[in-house]
Amino acid sequence: MPLFLLGAVLGSGTKAAEVNSAQIERGRYLVHGVALCIDCHSPRDEKGQFLAGKHLTGAALGFAATVPMPWAPAAPGIAGLENFTPEQAVKFLMTGERPSGVPVLPPMPAYRMDQDEAEAVVAYLKSLAPQK
Ligand code: HEC
User: Fold this and answer.
1) pTM value > 0.90
2) Which of 1, 20, 79, 110 could cysteine-pair with 56, CB 3.0–4.6 Å?
3) pLDDT digit string (tens) for 104-124?
């Protein structure tokens, strides 16, 4: 392959990888700093500190509804998002609709994210190792 072509191929590959890691970084920021998914989905120790290395692996909820209402028993693990394809997960974060059609129970918010926000969040969650 002529050198200038090799350069073009390698160059474009690097660019795609950079875009991808920038998207994952944005998703990390949204999950940890803005939408606060970690508040409910990450387990804590008895002092309320997040358990190291366990972010987004699922947690019991530390609070309950003050009036009787449907209420989820816990926030499931979402690291790796194994039960969702990327497309399903993006739709879920944009509409609140699960692929099964079963509405999500409170206190999980029905997010109405923009497509690019939802894609960034999903790219980040998919980049995490699922809890075994
Ligand atoms: C206020 C607490 C809370 C916050 C904040 C929260 N969640 Fe949840 N989430 C839950 C609970 C509780 C459930 C379980 C709902 C159910 O069982 O129907 C859930 C369910 C889910 C599910 C469905 C899992 C499955 O297997 O069906 C996904 C995906 C999810 N959350 C992602 C997120 C993301 C991404 C964020 C941040 C953008 C987030 N959650 C923020 C409490 C929360």
Assistant:
1) no
2) 79
3) 899 999 999 999 999 999 999
Question: How much distance in Å is there from the Cα of 130 to the middle of ligand 1?
Answer: 15
pLDDT over threshold 90, residue 74: yes
CA 72–ligand 1 middle distance (angstroms): 9
**Nearest protein Cα to ligand 1, atom 24:** 76
